[in-house]
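Friendly challenge for the regulars: who can give me the structure tokens for this chain first? No prize, just bragging rights.
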Amino acid sequence: MSDRQRELLDTWLPDAHVVANHSWGLVQTTVVEVYAGGARLIVKAGGPQDHHIERELRAHREWLAPWVRTGHAPQLVHGDVEAKLLVTRYLPGTLVQGHPAQDDPETYRQAGALLATFHAQSSTVDDTWERRNRERLLSDLDGPHRIDPVSTQRLRAEVSSWPDAPATLVPTHGDWQPRNWLIDGEIVRVIDFGRAELRPAVTDFARLERQDFARDPALEAAFIEGYGIDPRSPDLWRRTMVTEAIGTAVWAYGVGDEDFEQHGHRMIAALLDEPLAQNAQLGDPRP
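First reply, four minutes later:
Bragging rights claimed.
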């Protein structure tokens, strides 16, 4: 943590002591569980290049109230955007990822219902979202990655052809999947809002599609039942999955997560309906 972050924590939580470290180690975010003032709390501190804390604080201040009221999301205690620091109340439960609940359709029914409540809070029409998303993806394809040249060319051509149609944006979690859900008895709760942003609702379906839905259609059916409708129109869903595939391959390469990077390459190959190229294998970094 920075000196400023430590100063703020000393002011906010003068008697705090660390109970556990929940940091991933791949990104510039320190996550620790502490005990202070007779309560269990979670402290998140971002590094110099971190953008997640600002988004997480916005989510707490603008969008999380419906979940906090029902005990499905943690309550914000302290936050400072400039210092990239926040403190929330500890939320009871065990990560769904790796737990038997990850294979239980009831988990996904609850997750779908929770997401529907989150998305229904507000909506806005944005004439620039599609253009900005397209420009970001083209920039990613121009940057460092290990997507093979033929696939890169095909992806660039497809992304360049996307329309500038108005997009309906809603509050989205941005990483909606079992690693950000907790199971507490039979109750599903939600954590980690560092990717929360206004986006099309279907973007919160993407990470489930490539993982849990792909391995068990019953989980997808339960999720749609909980959500109430299936918002995945073909054209928007195609753009969403291409965005997810490129983002996975590029981000994972940048942070050195080789398994996740290969997952991105497999997604791209499936979308382009071609074998995984040999030069997309690890050990052949591209400038």
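The CA atoms of residues 5 and 165 lie 42 Å apart. Residues 234-255 form the longest helix (22 residues). Your move, everyone else.
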